[in-house]
Structures are given as structure tokens and as C-alpha cells.
Write a structure and sequence with these properties.
Elements lengths: L2 H12 L2 H13 L11 H22 L10
Helix pairs in contact: 1-3
Length: 72
């Protein structure tokens, strides 16, 4: 699957009413709208990792450049 097909699949899922609600829920649960900082550096890293997955999904749906994906 190439990058354009993958983007189309993400859009198919997340551009529905249910997909929009799921994305809002994921944003709230995984620190997109809240600080990732913790006094424990491992917890901070964990939260930032969670956040980066949601940002990746948003970038796929909104057609922002994705640097970590190579076309097959």
C-alpha cells in the first residue's frame, strides 16, 4: 500500500461522524489537549509517545507531511 492509499484509508475512517468523535476522544485521552509533563521523566516520555500517535493520525487525515513514512 502506498502513502496515498494509506491516507485515503485514514480519511475514510476519520472523516465520518463516528471517526470525528473517536478522534476527539483520543485527543482528550492521550494528551493532545493537555501537558505531557510529569515529574517522572519516564512518564513524560510515555505520554509524549501517546500524543505522537494521535498527531500522526491527524496529519494523515489533514494531509500534512509525514516524515517517518517511506513509500513501499
Amino acid at each position: 500500500m502506498n502513502i496515498e492509499d494509506l491516507r485515503a484509508a485514514h480519511k475514510l475512517i476519520f472523516n465520518t461522524d463516528d471517526g470525528v468523535e473517536i478522534m476527539k476522544d483520543l485527543e482528550l485521552r492521550f494528551h493532545v489537549r493537555s501537558p505531557v509533563f510529569s515529574s517522572d521523566p519516564y512518564e513524560t516520555a510515555f505520554r509524549d509517545g501517546q500524543r505522537s500517535v494521535i498527531l500522526f493520525l491527524q496529519n494523515m487525515v489533514n494531509e500534512r507531511p509525514i516524515m517517518d513514512i517511506e513509500e513501499e
